[in-house]
C-alpha cells in the first residue's frame, strides 16, 4: 500500500530549467552509472515490460546508454531497432560509444530538451524512460507522455522508472532527506525529486499493467508498465 503523502512532499517542487539540467549532466557524465540503487528497479522494469520481446524501442533521456547496451547485448534480435535521445551532449557521446557496435539498428541523438521525439507516429512497441520524469516539470512530463502515446503502436508498452514516495520507515526517511536536499539545492540530487507516475496516466489512454515501488538501498523507485489503448 502506498504511504500517505506528508507535508514535505505535498509541497510543489520547483524544477531545474533545461539549460541547468544539461549543464549538470554534461559534467556528471559516466558518474550516472554509479547510481547503485537503480539496478534492482531497472531489472524489474525490463522483466515486467517484456523488453526481450520488443522490436522497436525509444528511450527518452538515455543517459550513458547503459540500459541500451544491456538490451542490445542480451535481448535484441538483429531486426530490432533502438532510438535514444538525451539533452546532454556528454551523455549522447557516451551512449553512442556504448552502442556503436550496433550502429546499424541503434541510434542516439541530442535533443534541446523539448518533449518531442523526432520519429513518426506508431513506430515503436516500447517507450522507456528511467529516472527522467522525476526531473521534468509537470507540463513537460505530460507532453512527453503524449509523445509516448503518439509514438507507440496500439498495445505497445510505456515503461517508466522514477524516484517516488517512501513506503516503509526507512524509505520515507530517505525520501525526506532527498527532498530536503532538493529544496536546499536541486543540483545536489541531479534535479531529481520523488513523484508518483501513475497520477499522470489516464485510463482513457493507458491500461496500467504493472505498478510497484521497489526499495533499493533505502531509495524508493516507482516502476510502471502501461499499455497504450
Ligand atoms: C538521472 S539521469 C538518468 C539517465 C538514464 N535514463 C539512467 O537511468 O541511467 C537523467 C537523464 O535525463 C536526461 N534529460 C534530462 N532532461 C531531459 C530532457 N528534457 N530531454 C532529454 N533528456 C533529458 C539527462 O541529460 C540525463 O542523461
> Which sequence of SSEs, written as H and E, runs from N to C?
HHHEHEHEEHEHEE
Estimated helix fraction: 25-40%
Shape: globular
Number of helices: 7
CATH topology-level fold name: Rossmann fold
Low-confidence parts lasting 5 or more residues at pLDDT below 50? 1-11
Number of DSSP E strands: 7
CATH second-level architecture: 3-Layer(aba) Sandwich
Radius of gyration: 17 Å
Bound molecules: S-adenosylmethionine
Task: Give the helix/strand class.
Answer: alpha/beta
CATH class: Alpha Beta
What's the arrangement of strands in the largest beta sheet?
3-2-1-4-5-7-6
The pLDDT mean sits at 92
Q: What is the count of distinct domains?
A: 1
CATH superfamily: Vaccinia Virus protein VP39
Summarize, please.
The protein has seven helices and seven strands.
Account of the protein in words:
It is a single chain. Strands 3-2-1-4-5-7-6 form a seven-stranded mixed sheet. The chain has a single domain, classed as Vaccinia Virus protein VP39 (Rossmann fold). The chain is globular, with a radius of gyration of 17 Å. Strand 4, helix 6 and strand 5 form a beta-alpha-beta unit. By secondary structure, the chain is α/β, with parallel strands linked by helices. The structure holds S-adenosylmethionine. The site of S-adenosylmethionine has 23 residues, from helix 2 and strand 2. The site of S-adenosylmethionine (SAM) has 23 residues, from helix 2 and strand 2.
Amino acid at each position: 500500500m502506498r504511504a500517505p503523502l506528508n507535508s514535505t512532499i505535498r509541497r510543489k517542487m520547483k524544477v531545474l530549467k533545461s539549460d541547468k539540467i544539461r549543464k549538470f549532466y554534461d559534467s556528471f557524465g559516466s558518474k550516472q552509472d554509479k547510481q547503485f540503487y537503480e539496478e534492482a528497479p531497472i531489472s524489474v522494469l525490463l522483466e515486467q515490460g517484456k523488453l526481450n520481446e520488443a522490436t522497436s524501442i525509444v528511450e527518452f533521456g538515455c543517459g550513458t546508454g547503459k540500459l541500451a547496451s544491456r538490451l542490445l547485448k542480451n535481448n535484441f534480435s538483429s531486426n530490432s531497432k533502438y532510438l535514444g535521445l538525451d539533452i546532454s551532449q556528454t551523455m549522447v557521446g557516451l551512449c553512442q560509444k556504448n552502442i556503436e557496435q550496433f550502429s546499424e539498428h541503434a541510434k542516439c541523438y541530442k535533443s534541446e530538451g523539448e518533449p518531442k521525439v523526432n520519429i513518426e507516429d506508431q513506430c515503436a512497441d516500447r517507450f522507456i524512460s528511467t529516472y527522467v520524469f522525476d526531473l521534468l516539470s509537470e507540463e513537460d512530463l505530460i507532453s512527453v507522455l503524449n509523445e509516448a502515446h503518439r509514438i507507440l503502436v496500439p498495445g505497445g508498452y510505456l515503461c517508466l522508472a522514477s524516484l517516488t514516495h517512501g513506503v516503509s520507515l526507512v524509505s520515507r526517511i530517505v525520501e525526506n532527506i532527498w527532498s530536503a536536499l532538493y529544496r536546499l539545492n536541486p543540483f545536489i540530487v541531479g534535479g531529481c525529486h520523488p513523484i508518483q507516475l501513475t497520477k499522470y496516466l489516464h485510463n482513457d489512454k493507458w491500461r496500467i499493467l504493472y505498478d510497484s515501488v521497489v526499495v533499493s538501498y533505502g531509495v524508493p523507485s516507482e516502476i510502471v508498465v502501461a499499455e497504450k489503448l
